[in-house]
């Protein structure tokens, strides 16, 4: 079943991927800005604010030099300002301690302000095409349902493709599936592209016994 899940998911993604601005870049700064914005904010809202923020602060150095008040103003409308504070602190740390280059390994990434296991995995994969898992709420739900497991990080790491480029697609695909089909309240199993490889989906398909 595991062997089937991966090709089904990738095939679907290659046809139905959402075209999102942060997917058109491998610039680590742009990827990290998108990841901070996407925490607790809907994709459609981030699509609106992301270009504005990048127009104002196009590089990590621009952001590091900015005044906190100005960063907060640019973040206005996205809410959860702790993220803006952390992103600003991250930019200053990167400029000061990492020669303005965002690190590529998950261990160093996690030493930066506001970066936890998920964001570190997402940046390593989405910016550097590294073979890393990135388990956010959507991915967790998908993997739990498909494999009926509680060890989600471990299970996700085990099913990653071998090549970094394909891991990039695979992680994006897991997120898209969780956001559009394997949604929280009512998963759309009848139209799900990975149903034949999903323990939950297959169980739902079994015909009920006659009374
Ligand atoms: S078959 Fe249903 S439970 Fe399984 S991944 Fe698809 S939508 Fe989610």
Written description of the protein model:
Helices cover 61% and strands 0% of the residues. The two termini are 31 Å apart. α1 (2-16) crosses α11. It contains twelve helices and no strands. By secondary structure, it is mostly helical. The protein has helices at residues 2-16, 28-38, 43-56, 60-65, 68-75, 82-97, 106-109, 117-128, 137-147, 152-159, 164-180, 199-205. It has two domains: 1-18 and 131-204, Orthogonal Bundle (Endonuclease Iii, domain 2), CATH 1.10.1670; 27-128, Endonuclease III, domain 1, CATH 1.10.340.30. The model has no long low-confidence stretch (mean pLDDT 95). The longest helix is centred in the last third of the chain and has 17 residues, at 164-180. The structure holds iron/sulfur cluster. Iron/sulfur cluster binds at residues 142, 145-146, 181-182, 187-189, 192, 194-195, 198, 200-201.
């Amino acid at each position: 079943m595991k062997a089937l899940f991966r090709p089904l998911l990738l095939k679907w993604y290659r046809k139905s991927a959402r075209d999102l601005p942060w997917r058109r870049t491998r610039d680590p700064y742009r990827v990290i800005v998108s990841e901070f914005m996407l925490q607790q904010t809907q994709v459609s809202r981030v699509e609106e604010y992301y270009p504005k923020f990048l127009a104002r602060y196009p590089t990590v150095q621009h952001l590091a030099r900015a005044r906190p008040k100005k960063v907060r103003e640019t973040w206005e409308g996205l809410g959860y300002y702790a993220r803006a504070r952390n992103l600003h602190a991250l930019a200053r740390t990167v400029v000061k301690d990492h020669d303005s280059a965002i690190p590529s390994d998950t261990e160093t990434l996690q030493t930066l302000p506001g970066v936890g296991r998920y964001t570190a995995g997402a940046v390593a994969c989405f910016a550097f095409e590294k073979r890393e898992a990135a388990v956010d709420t959507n991915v967790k739900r998908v993997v739990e349902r498909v494999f009926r497991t509680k060890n989600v990080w471990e299970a996700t790491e085990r099913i990653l493709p071998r090549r970094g480029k394909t891991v990039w697609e695979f992680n994006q695909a897991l997120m898209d599936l969780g956001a559009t089909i394997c949604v929280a309240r009512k998963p759309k199993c009848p139209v799900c592209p990975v149903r034949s490889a999903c323990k939950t989906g297959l169980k739902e398909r079994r015909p009920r016994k006659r009374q």
